[in-house]
Fold these 2 entries.
Entry 1:
Amino acid sequence: MPAFSGLFAPYWKSDARGAIVGMTRYVNKGHIARAALEATAFQTREVLDAMNKDSGVDLTALKVDGGMVFNDTLMQFQADVLGVPVIRPVVAETTALGAAYAAGLAVGFWEAVEDLRANWGKDHEWTPKMDADHRAKIYAGWKKAVTKTFDWVE
């Protein structure tokens, strides 16, 4: 549980702290690494669940960007825990791309935002392979682990 400086959205618990729970004597460094990847996917799901609830609009796909999107294991697990496709664009560093687009729009290189949409392309898509019962079971385990990090700071 990566809560080294608290748990924020959707919990808003600054007194939470990082923890590794559920270990047995058979756990090795590979399990710890996998747990770190899975934590990223579960935290993403929690934020997206809150967004779905607040907006009343269900997520139908997740477009991803950044360095972690090149980890195929993480992207497949993200699709599995969300139950929707995860899509990586050809240009995965969209922060830099967005700055370039803003500059290009400002100087008239592109006339409108609609011109930019033609530049977007899909590199890879992961579809969910996990059955709904298993998804619910592992997510419940995640939620249980989250509660173990609460109230560490007095």
Entry 2:
Amino acid sequence: MADHYEVLGVSREATTDEIKKAYRRLARELHPDVNPSSEASERFKEVTHAYDVLSDAKQRQNYDMGGQGGFGGGGGDFGGFGDIFETFFGGGGGGGRRGPRSRRERGQDALLRVEVDLDEIIFGTHRDIEVDTAILCETCQGSCCAPGTSPVTCDICHGTGSIQRAVRSLLGNVMTSSPCGSCRGYGTIIATPCLTCQGQGRVRARRTVPVDIPAGVDTGVRLQMPGSGEAGPAGGPNGDLYLEMKVRHHDVFSRDGDDLLATLEVAMTDAILGTTTTLHALDGDVELDLKPGTQSAEVITIKDRGVTKLRGNGRGDLRIGIQVVTPSKLNGKERELIEQFAGMHKHPKPALSQFQQGLFAKLRDKFRG
């Protein structure tokens, strides 16, 4: 194999910029679009391979260690000694035994955040979610090649995907292996890439993913949909799609585990005399009977009208906290009636007693209890 420095026409002490300039100059002369001859094509491949090796600091160092300069090539630099041991003892440098890389790779996973309403999670719901992702190229079906063509074997590495080189070391001559710069380790070259996907085997597109959101999910819960993520390069398998749930705030109802909580404001007269009322719950109407003498901070529990359990059977409860509303403005007649009522029911005068928590604190404690 020709010396890479001679191929590019530069000295062994050439800087990275000098190597880049030499490659650009030769590429303009030898590129198949400019010079279609077979000799120029072969020369272009050699120039490209030489540039790939010498433009990478590590590959250039490894190459120099096996070049004309003898051991250490660059004046006794031992920087590549670890790589020699890795190769000798079967480490990362022994890529020749593994064979060429596969173009097929698994697609990336994707994460989307989905917002749902509180009433939707009682029994679960269905959504059709629009996803901007990578899908299989329909033109080449993941082959990366234009229709009617196929990958060709790399004539630099002869399909192995790696270049082997003898390196002199304290242990004697050791064979090192590095990825082929011409085919990038694949062992084949896509000579005629698919125009639709530019040789990737996949394209970006929007697709609809149907999702059945189970009952009982809560904010932060993640649903995994295997195989619904991005399509992999070169027809590789799809990744997974993860949906992170967020339950929107509701103005009336809140959630405590599988239970639903709400506060019912009751007029003072209804609390005294008792009444029956119809409440509009998230899953339909609820008939509620208030007993005479109902007090603020009492909690009425309606069984099995909460959220369906995510894991297990049954539903939580609907718990309604009572808040008795005292009228703040009375007309003359109303005040007279209240005074008559007060005269008929003598109560102790207001006096200090043990500190009592506020209504909402009491409701919170009772809800939790």
